[in-house]
Amino acid sequence: MLRVTEADVRNLLRFSGAVELAREAYVKLANREAVNPERILLTVPGGASMFFMPAHVSGQGTVSIKIARVNSDNSARFLPTVMSDVLVYDSRSGVLLAEIPGETLTAIRTAASSAVATDVLARRDAKSLGLLGTGRQAVAHVPAIQQVRDISRVIVYSRDKGRREAFARRISRDYKIETLPADSPEEVAKESDVLVTATTSHTPLFKGELVKNGTHVNAIGASEPDSREVDTSLVKRSILVVDSRAQAISTYGDIIIPIRERAIEETHIRAELGELLTKKHSFSRDPNDITLFKAGGLAVLDAVAADFIVSQAQSGSL
């Protein structure tokens, strides 16, 4: 069995390629060329939430399943709040081929997914990228969004002043882009052309009316029915696109709660991202429109990335 390391994933899964793999995954799913069962959520009372995410893409020799664990209390134990592993099997025999640690893979494929959505939904002249959160996801979104937009400025906020200042220094150094720590999430919301929420918050991070017209938002943090990063006001104001309708109305609190409040109906979801990529639904935006991409992560994204990593490793690229 192949044991892939985090360093291997970083070396093999470059952002330029990852964005194209994410695009391919959404297209395959929209064209019914992928099997992506709705993920299974198991929450232990007082413990972790466990997500089981299998998928297979037609024509690939592998089947993948990601097992992700989330516990926002882990930071107090000096443990990661999110952990995951991807197991890769031969699609014919069922033999276990590889075990891939999920942290770097998830960060890269999630950021690549946001980049695909940004390419489809954001204004072409978007220049400023706002980040709420300073973890792996936030870091990965900078080079990913740079693949599709000419970003000249990054604004970042997290509750820990020292972490957001260190994050700003790191991004400025590593990506040669002006990066400024903000004093509040409201400041980030007001100043961003593209806004990414990448936190484990259970409640909205800012008031939706603060987001300026013309902004594109990628909400990728909260993924449980009673958790959300954006409020009802922003959801109502936005052209709403999701990674999966079924998953959105069963799992994403950002959408479930506004529906429960009767502020929106399920039909407020304009389209799935794959439907826009394959032209099954048309899309055009006014310069003043706010677009919102809500994603909680699809197993098909992991499957496409894992198959690529395994194929590269088997060809001797490690």
List keywords for this structure.
alpha/beta; 24% strand; seven-stranded mixed sheet; ornithine cyclodeaminase, domain 1; Rossmann fold; single chain; eight-stranded parallel sheet
Description:
- It is globular and about 55 Å long.
- It has an eight-stranded parallel beta sheet, with helices on both faces.
- The model has no long low-confidence stretch (mean pLDDT 95).
- It folds into two domains: 2-105 and 300-314, ornithine cyclodeaminase, domain 1; 117-298, NAD(P)-binding Rossmann-like Domain (Rossmann fold, 3-Layer(aba) Sandwich).
- Helix 3 crosses helix 11 (299-314).
- The protein has eleven helices and 15 strands.
- The protein has 318 residues and is α/β, with parallel strands linked by helices.
- 37% of the residues lie in helices and 24% in strands.
Write a compact overview of the structure shown:
By secondary structure, the chain is of the alpha/beta class. 37% of the residues lie in helices and 24% in strands. The mean pLDDT is 95.
Output the structural class. Answer: alpha/beta
State the CATH topology of the largest domain: Rossmann fold
Count the domains.
2
Please tally the β strands and state the result: 15
Spell out the blueprint of helices and strands.
Blueprint: E1 2-3, H1 6-12, H2 15-30, E2 34-35, E3 40-43, E4 49-57, E5 62-70, E6 82-90, E7 96-101, H3 102-121, E8 128-132, H4 136-146, E9 153-157, H5 161-175, E10 178-181, H6 185-191, E11 194-197, E12 216-219, H7 232-237, E13 238-242, H8 245-251, H9 253-260, E14 269-272, H10 273-277, E15 290-294, H11 299-314
